[in-house]
Write a structure and sequence with these properties.
With 293 residues, the chain is an alpha/beta fold. The strands form two sheets. Strands 1-2-3-6-7-8-9-10 form an eight-stranded parallel β-barrel. It is globular and about 50 Å long. 40% of the residues are buried. This is Oxidoreductase, aldo/keto reductase family protein.
Length: 293
């Protein structure tokens, strides 16, 4: 089943923090935020059904409709599969993952209705499950592709072996993983190598890592280098962190979680920074806490 080639803005706007889990934007505020982000050149928006306790997709859909933005001018990603305890899902007793065909089809339809769109540019399985059946997933995804409800299919947080299991039956076009200066393992453990080999688009959630969240030996080492590089490149720490990811040859697309236009603008500007190779490695060494072999 042929999938459309993914053509996303290099910086992807995640909306997890726009609703109940963060900024709690009104419909008008969210509509304005969509327009501001588009003005910066960010055209791709990343969703998941669970965001905001299963409420943010609908809030975004209402705001998108009010914004007047053309559907063809943006790309919408959404994820499904995580079932957790929520007032919106009163039948859930324990957090779990669900990927039977009926659930995939029905949940995708719910996301389309909430987002006020006829199709998703990319549908992702949010997290791998030990119970996922690749043949059942294939059947559901092929039906969604045939009906034009999704343009392409991918995964999130999947290992190379899990991707290979699915790819035996259906093409995986994208994999959204945690990757940053403090979570650099995908660059060394074969995860990104596998994506390059299989022509899978890499997307990185939490691209700033734990630099602004934790005060550890690792973050302190990295901060010391960042302070020097900030002065050298006459930019900000968050821009250096984004530029560090962008330099990787796999073509990582950072998924930024900000609800502030100024931070989104900074992420876009980071595309103009070309880190010197030794500066790049100096950051990696600081994060690892030891020299490269």
């Amino acid at each position: 089943m042929l999938q459309e080639k993914l053509q996303f803005s290099r910086i992807i706007q995640g909306v997890m923090n726009w609703g109940a889990w963060g900024a709690k934007m009104s419909t008008q505020q969210m509509a304005e935020q969509i327009e501001h982000v588009l003005d910066l050149g960010i055209t791709t928006f990343d969703h998941a059904d669970i965001y905001g306790g299963y409420t943010t997709e609908a809030e975004f859909g209402k705001a998108f409709k009010e914004s007047g933005v053309n559907r063809e001018d943006v790309q919408l990603i959404s994820k499904l599969g995580i079932q957790y305890l929520s007032d919106e899902r009163p039948y859930n007793r324990v957090k779990h993952y669900q990927y039977d065909a009926t659930y995939i089809l029905e949940n995708t339809e719910r996301s389309l209705q909430k987002l006020n769109t006829n199709y998703l540019d990319l549908l992702l399985l949010h997290r791998p499950s030990p119970l996922m059946d690749p043949l059942e997933i294939k059947g559901a995804i092929e039906r969604l592709l045939t009906e034009g409800k999704i343009k392409s299919f991918g995964v999130s947080n999947f290992t190379p072996s899990q991707v290979a299991m699915l790819e035996k039956h259906i093409k995986v076009s994208g994999n959204q993983i945690e990757c940053s200066i403090t979570q650099y393992e995908p660059m060394l453990n074969g995860v990104l190598d596998d994506m390059v080999t299989k022509n899978i688009l890499p997307m990185a959630w939490s691209p700033l890592g734990s630099i602004f969240k934790e005060h550890t030996q690792q973050t302190m080492r990295v901060q010391n280098v960042l302070k020097t590089l900030r002065a050298k490149y006459r930019t900000t720490i968050d821009q250096i962190l984004i530029a560090w990811l962008l330099k990787h040859p796999s073509g990582i697309h950072p998924v930024i979680g900000t609800s502030k236009v100024s931070h989104a603008k900074a992420a876009v500007k980071a595309q103009e920074i070309n880190l010197d190779i030794q500066d790049w490695f100096e950051l990696l060494i600081a994060s690892q806490g030891h020299k490269v072999p």
